[in-house]
Amino acid sequence: MSYTVLARRYRSQRFDDVVGQNAIAHTLKNAIRTDRVAHAYLFTGTRGVGKTTMARILAKSLNCLSTGEPTIEPCLKCDSCVAVNTGEDIDVIEIDGASNTSVEDIRELRGNAIYRPARARFKIYIIDEVHMLSISAFNALLKILEEPPSHVKFIFATTEPHKVPATIQSRCQRFDFANISPADIIAQLKKILTEEKIKFEDDCIIALARLAAGSMRDALSLVDQLISTGAEKLTVNMFEEFLGQPNKEKIYELLEKVGSSDAAAALVCLDALLSSGLSCIGVLDGLVESFRDMMVLKASVGGSSSLVILTQAEKNALSRIAQVFDIPALVYNVTLLEKLRWPVKNSDNPRALLEAALLRLALSEHFMSIPELLSQAGGVKAVKNTSAGSNAVRHPLAEKNTVAADSTPSPLKKQPETKVEHTQQEPVIASDADIEQIKQHWGKIVDFARLHTNARIAELLKKAVPLRLNSGTLSIGFDTSDEFSMKLCQSNGRAEIIESVLSSALGTKIKAVFGTIDNGGKAGQKPKPPGAKASKKTIDEAANTPAVRTILSELDASILDVKEEGQ
Predict the structure, then answer these.
(1) Would you say residue 560 lies in a domain?
(2) How crowded is residue 141: how many other Cβ atoms within 10 Å of its Cβ?
(3) Whole-angstrom distance, CA of residue 121 vs CA of residue 236
(4) Do residues 319 and 313 lie in contact, with contact meaning Cβ atoms separated by under 8 Å?
(5) Which among 10, 14, 29 is positioned nearest to 175, based on CA atoms?
(6) Of 71, 110, 273, 390, which is most buried by a Cβ count within 10 Å?
């Protein structure tokens, strides 16, 4: 006995069985109940979302022989229902628009349509990929669509509705089938695999739903492919090995190297991915997908967006890596890599293009952003970006940033992490400061670092907390959950830059050492002042108010307590 693939074996049989198209199913059921079934329908949507399945269900509902009239619950047992399921019903004619494109085919259809159905209520024509018909064939359809015999129904399905002439669409009721949500695909796959008594890892099902991209048929075809390997259990490793998908751990390692500006290590990670059998396009797709997920996580409140299809472990890993990127950088990275797809696909040396792109991303911190450029070139004003229709500043890597200067501006390329920019500004605190004073003024020290180095160094220091000062050695701690930021401080010469800027801020030679502390995930947060009744959160919110922040800065003061109005 021949094997029937899952996509056919588990094809929906009734309206309520169709996954992810509840609104369309509800509308068609109401049309049947109220006897308002149109003479022509146009079902549009991407592949594998249920267009042909819905057409067959509608045909069964209209022609089911177990009742005296159309029903929303076809019996699935009568001769008509069984024949429709197998595509052999003489009154429900399925036509492939891709292979019956000529005007002669449509003229034959019109000639047969005038005859009443042999045994059912309606003669139903289901034309799949209708957009493939020729213009002459479409024109031949117009007359019968406008004035069809009462016993004829047309159901057209297409993945490219823009290719269907407006004259045809205006004579049909159009239903746009949405991509099936990942949650629905995951639930359906688990249900089917349970019925098939096949073991699986939840993470594997999530990965399959992600790759299916909204198509239930694609998801079931992928499952069939994994089942055919003969393994007792479907796993993530199988998914990566047999479906040619990039190893997520290796992709994330590559992202970490890019984020830490370790260009040499990034090339080594790329080589490992390519050596595993992955193509350059495969690596590119993996990077674009991961940068996109980080962008969404970074933009969402608390990084808990439901817009990403990730396991909890993947979400945690990407949230951690995303800390070293800002949203504009992630937007730029996605755009750059997506634009690279066509050149890589058609190049004789795609690896070189991919390596060049990774080096560009890894070394992005060596390019100065427009705000930094303006802050260092006094009197410089940004020119309005008329092409964008706004004054928005482009990303640091934009190659055509435009400025108008009263004096010669600084070059776009800088050496931000090789040398601290020294000015005549006074140190933040005196050279004989103790650790308590450093803790109290840590925010000002971070601002000093932002002004005299770059935003990345300042953001790293902002996450840290000063611990001890002993003989000119300042111990700086990071929460154990943020060990990645600590490692960034220790790599690519950042430690020397941090020591230099701290020495300038404290007016004395400082050596920095880095470590982790277990502070309940609150590294870098000072405890509330002794005796304060307000919570640490309330004090921090007050300190970050622009007016209060200005006062604290001018008076060199700090907040001891906050009393809310009315207390």
Answers:
(1) no
(2) 26
(3) 50
(4) no
(5) 29
(6) 273
Domain of residue 213 covers 182-242
Tally the domains of the chain.
Answer: 5
Instruction: Report pLDDT digits (tens) over 40-77.
Output: 999 999 999 999 999 999 999 999 998 889 999 999 99
Which tens digits make up the pLDDT trace of 212-244? Answer: 888 999 999 999 999 988 888 898 888 887 887
Mean pLDDT within 543-559: 67
With respect to residue 280, please indicate whether it lies within any of the assigned structural domains.
Answer: yes
CA 54 to chain centre: 29
Q: Are residues 64 and 113 in the same domain?
A: yes
Structure pTM? 0.62
Q: Which of 271-280, 425-434, 493-502 has the lowest mean pLDDT?
A: 425-434
In this structure, are residues 165 and 33 in contact, taking their beta carbons and an 8 Å threshold? no
* 433, 436, 441, 447: CA torsion to nearest 10: 80
Q: Which amino acid is at 421?
A: E
Q: Which residues contact 22 (CB under 8 A, 6 or more apart)?
A: none
pLDDT tens track for 430-468: 767 788 888 888 988 998 888 888 777 888 888 899 998
Q: Is 281 left (phi over 0), alpha (psi -120 to 50) or beta?
A: alpha
Question: Do 101 and 134 contact (CB within 8 A), yes or no?
Answer: yes
Nearest to 16 by CA among 81, 85, 80, 72: 72
- 419 assigned to some structural domain: no
267 and 235 share one domain: no
| Cα distance between residue 413 and residue 487, in whole Å | 25
38 falls within a domain: yes
